[in-house]
Specification:
7-stranded mixed sheet; globular; 4-stranded antiparallel sheet; 13 strands; mainly beta; 0% helix
Length: 173
């Protein structure tokens, strides 16, 4: 059996846009990748990315599994995986290791295309206003047979789209 990438499921929860994509790995892969983000995600506004929201054990080793973010610039944007090789079609890496480790625990980061400061992995990263975003998680060895859920959450229309972290808010200038 090969890697199975589910479609993004979109919904509104308490007035917020929420979408998730399940990726099921086998013991043959060393990395996983999502489908391109759904059209409902507005990459021109900040959003929260949550990876491994169900806290599954993605591999049995003690090595870390970091998360990378890609931007796609056409309808053909895709991230495809063959065992330990990632192929990126019509896109590029925009933020590597933005979540340090999701091997057995939930990880999250705010992706903000307007960020004017350096990335702070696991807290906030400079996104890119792009047609689509995609996400990968890479192990140092083979993954377990597990389903990993990637979730994006964003303020819906009518909200100002601002997200704050530990007292750091929008740039006051």
């Amino acid at each position: 059996m090969a890697l199975v990438v589910g479609d993004w499921v979109e919904k509104t929860v308490n007035g917020q846009y929420v979408a998730y994509c399940d990726v099921t790995s086998t013991t043959s892969e060393e990395l996983i990748a999502t489908a391109k983000s759904p059209k409902g995600l507005d990459t021109t506004k900040p959003y929260l990315l949550v990876v491994n929201s169900e806290s599954v054990t993605m591999d049995a080793t003690s090595a870390v599994i970091p998360v990378d973010i890609y931007a796609g610039y056409s309808e053909d944007f895709a991230l495809s995986v063959t065992t330990d090789t990632l192929t990126v079609t019509d896109g590029a890496l925009i933020a590597n290791n933005m979540i340090a480790d999701v091997r057995t625990a939930i990880g999250s980061v705010i992706v903000d295309p307007n960020l004017q400061i350096a990335n702070a992995a696991g807290v906030i990263c400079r996104g890119a206003a792009a047609g689509y975003h995609g996400y990968t998680a890479t192990a140092e060895s083979v993954l377990s047979a597990a389903t990993t859920r990637f979730v994006v959450m964003q303020a819906s229309e009518g909200n100002d789209g601002s997200l704050t972290v530990g007292g750091v808010g929008a740039d006051p200038s």
